[in-house]
Amino acid sequence: MRSLVQPGPVHPVRIDSFTGEPEPLRFVLRPGLSLHEALTGPLVAAGFQSATLTLCGGALNPFRYVMPGPADDASHVAYFTAPRAPVGVTWIEQANTTFGWADGKPFLHTHAAWIEPDGTRRGGHILNADSYVCAGAVVEAWGFTDIRVATAFDPETNFTLFQPSGGTPTGSAVFARVKPNEDIGLAVEAVAAAHGMRDAEVRGSLGSLIGARFTDGSGVDDRATEVLVRGGAVRNGVATLDLLVVDMMGRVHDGALVRGDNPVCITFDFVLTRAGESHSRAA
User: Is the overall model pTM greater than 0.85, yes or no?
Assistant: First the structure.
């Protein structure tokens, strides 16, 4: 399996996972607000300390984003491109977001695929505070009041990353973070097994991979990709993951991942809920 040598020491614990009680929440993005404001407002009002979100549809204008890119030097294995800002309305195909905190303030990490004003399908990392909602969309969120996610410096990757903490021993869902060079599918299976979840659903979730390999034989060979989960599940202990994968040119690839051949590049956040969980609240 592919791997990258990170700039810092390898942490001995490769997967962090915390159990909590999920609170499903559904709300609609409000036009006129920044994406940051439109997403964090209902989550903060609900008292969430962390959440994973998915939205399909809606539009942004103005819109700013970055794509995965090569590192300038040996201080990182990969980095970001300069910000881009297409002129006109950009329509979101799917966006997944992790909600947490940075310096005590609400913070978001969002990966998405979209259609730009010229009709081109692209993807990458949305700059939430600089992108404004001009057409609403329904957001599906799974929040936690008992698991906190906050940014912290990660010596291994030399990035400041989201890190979960807290939780309760009897929670029915899991918030996990996977570290570099671990296969994401095997990591999902390991977390599910560790928490007694033989059948589970992957909610929201996003991260980066070292390229990608799909079950149809296609793949992405770039050093770094930004990805989001389009659909995922664990059945009888075996994980299947259907991802949108953004390469270093902003091109979007999609498909089911090959088991055991899709290592994490920098970090990957995912939430597992027991199969059968459904929404019960609306903001």
Answer: yes
